[in-house]
Amino acid sequence: MAAPILEVDMAHPSPRHVQRAVEVLERGGLIAYPTDTYYGMGCDLGSKKAIERLYLLKGRDKKKPLSFLCPDLSDVARYAHVSNFAYRTMKGLTPGAFTFILEATRLVPDLMMTRQKQVGIRVPDAPLARELARALGRPLVTTSVTNTDGEPLTDAKDIKAALGRGLDLILDGGVTLNEPSTVVSLIGDTLEILREGKGRLGD
């Protein structure tokens, strides 16, 4: 059965809607949701089975770790080693359309790390996405929702048609015509842009 669609307000999410999504996540479910970049699909960082389901649905090689999002900067330090340089850099860019590459802590599952024990973390400029992670109490594993050709799906109805049988809930925040996040490595206290995207340095 295809996942139900629930209309939500991205900027001012209803606690009832957030709670419904969190209940799905706590059961090991997969959800699709709007972010400040593309629609994302995600699961609870604490559920290995859900992470494996997400890799399968995305059709992604497990050697390419997914990123995850935290509700705010204070949570990032639980899952990554944050130097003074990294903290100052992220403080000026969060919340925002950036994915930061950092050294992972032991709290991060092996599935989510590179061989170098690095991880990608977001604090998105999307109240709904941050509230989902805050209410869950753990980061939300996230990846963009795409079709079989790798093209982003920007409408909840299209997401349901393409991936609805693999998802458990779709949060509809309207059509999102956007860009991917900018990926920034902060390894070794050096800022390196790995992918140009929506996030702009110096804005």
Task: Describe this entry's structure for a reader.
The protein contains six helices and eleven strands. Strands 1, 2, 3, 4, 5, 6, 7, 8, 9, 10 and 11 form an eleven-stranded mixed β-sheet that branches. 29% of the residues lie in helices and 22% in strands. A hairpin with a 6-residue loop joins strand 10 (182-185) and strand 11 (192-195). The protein has 203 residues and is an alpha/beta fold. The longest helix is centred in the first third of the chain and has 12 residues, at 15-26. It has helices spanning 15-26, 48-58, 73-79, 84-93, 127-136, 156-163, and strands at residues 5-7, 31-33, 40-44, 67-69, 80-81, 98-104, 118-122, 140-144, 169-172, 182-185, 192-195.
User: Count of DSSP helices?
Assistant: 6
What's the count of strands? 11
Can you give the mean pLDDT? 95
**DSSP strand content:** 15-25%
Main pleated-sheet profile: 11 strands, mixed
Based on helices, strands and strand pairing, what is the structural class?
Answer: alpha/beta
Order of SSEs, N→C?
EHEEHEHEHEEHEHEEE
Contiguous low-pLDDT stretches (5 residues minimum) are none
Estimated helix fraction: 25-40%
Q: Using only CA atoms, what is the Rg?
A: 16 Å
Shape: globular
**Measured distance between first and last alpha carbons:** 44 Å
